[in-house]
Write a structure and sequence with these properties.
By secondary structure, the protein is α/β, with parallel strands linked by helices. The protein contains 16 helices and 12 strands. The protein has 2 domains: 137 residues, 3-Layer(aba) Sandwich (Rossmann fold); 163 residues, 3-Layer(aba) Sandwich (Rossmann fold). 46% of the residues lie in helices and 14% in strands. The strands form 4 sheets. A 5-stranded mixed beta sheet has the order 8-6-10-11-12. Helix 7 runs antiparallel to helix 8. The longest helix is centred in the first third of the chain and has 36 residues. Belongs to the bacterial solute-binding protein 8 family. This is Iron complex transport system substrate-binding protein. Keywords: Signal.
Length: 375
């Protein structure tokens, strides 16, 4: 009996060994396949650094002004594993990428965030991303230091000098696309932005300067809300449509705070007010109605509202939408086929997957003519 039991056990063992071996080989093969699917490659980031990254990266974080927005444009939201505190705590108003993807606010915090913050290496490492994308917060040496502290590849991105239609933005989008396996989508976004830029330019390129109305934009945000004196030379929406921006006469570029007397001397034909500072302008109008009533644009009813697009750096979607509305106002014949609200929704839909103009208009009043009533 014992001999028969022993032989039975031996036969059962002989049958099980191949099964165990096959099962073990199968597990090993699966791991090998997973490892083969994610490969290492070296990329050059916008700081000129050579960084070895896994491709495709399946878990990422984006820190610094505008980094998360670019990841959203490339349809990388599902790969984001943590966001900065400011993305969670600031109101979603004025940031279309958060309006489109409110679920981002539910992700773990990876540091304070903000334009002058310091990356939190410990919190970044805790969510175990494959790659850290960063804009503005670090220079080349600091990026190397953060990478050494976290033992996670750090890839520096950039919005460049212009942001709205800037080659550095396109390079950043391509880089994100390559790293997260969304190269085709990244190129689609770049093509769309360049198509918008070309369309805006072509509509107005042949208009002589002396045939263009003289225009001004005021109440632009600059580290906070400001009144009508806050403006910008080479203002991107105006530059995109070849508008005659009176501030360009200063020879400056970027944000400018002007004296009221200068605005009176310029006396532009059309004035645009950034909705982010509109309440300050209306409050000031109650105190100084004579100043405003002295302006030609106010007297002729040529004052319009634009949606603010600078919130944690440039919301490129809203900036392009503003350019189309400004074009419709300044050069109505050249933009007669454009419905600014529908165009804005087309832009938001393409870049962020949702039509967001209605919400933006609810928050800021939308594209409209402003009426200055006597106080």
């Amino acid at each position: 009996m014992r001999m028969k039991a022993f032989k039975a056990m031996a036969m059962l063992f002989a049958l099980l060994v191949p099964i165990i071996m096959i099962s073990g080989c199968g597990a090993k093969t699966t791991k090998q396949e997973e490892a083969a699917a994610v490969q290492k490659t070296v990329v050059t980031d916008l700081a000129g650094r050579q960084v070895q990254v896994p491709v495709p990266a399946n878990k990422v974080v984006a820190i610094g002004p505008g980094a998360l927005r670019l990841v959203c444009y490339v349809k990388g939201v599902s790969k984001v594993v943590g966001v900065e505190n400011v993305e969670k705590q600031w109101p979603s108003t004025g940031r279309p990428y958060i309006l489109a993807y409110p679920e981002l606010k539910d992700l773990p915090a990876i540091g304070p965030g903000g334009p002058n913050s310091t990356p939190d290496a410990e919190k970044l490492a805790k969510v175990q991303p494959d790659v850290i994308f960063v804009v503005s917060l670090v220079d080349r040496a600091q990026a190397d230091e953060l990478q050494a502290k976290t033992n996670i590849p750090v890839v520096v991105l950039s919005y460049g000098k212009v942001a709205t239609f800037d080659e550095d933005v396109y390079k950043s989008l391509r880089l994100i696309g390559k790293i997260i396996g969304r190269e085709e989508r990244a190129q689609e976004v770049i093509d769309y932005m360049q198509k918008c830029q070309q369309d805006l330019h072509d509509r107005t390129k042949d208009i002589p300067a002396d045939k263009k109305p003289r225009v001004y934009v005021g109440a632009l945000g600059m580290k906070g809300a400001h009144g009508i004196e806050s403006t910008q030379a080479k203002y991107p929406p105006f530059a995109a449509i070849n508008a005659r921006n009176v501030v360009d006469e200063t020879g400056k570029t970027g944000s400018v705070m002007i004296d009221r007397e200068k605005l009176l001397s310029w006396d532009p034909d059309i004035i645009f007010i950034d909705a982010g500072g509109l309440s300050l302008v209306l409050e000031d109008y109650k105190k100084n109605p004579r100043f405003y009533q002295s302006l030609r644009a106010v007297k002729t009813g040529q004052v319009y509202s634009l949606m603010p697009y600078n919130y944690y750096t440039t919301n490129i979607d809203t900036a392009i939408a503003d350019a189309y509305f400004a074009g419709k106002v300044i050069f109505p014949e050249k933009f007669k086929d454009i419905d600014p609200a529908k165009k804005a929704d087309e832009i938001y839909q393409f870049l962020l997957g949702k039509p967001l103009y209605e919400q933006m208009a609810k928050d800021y009043g939308g594209f409209r003519k402003l009426e200055f009533q006597n106080p």
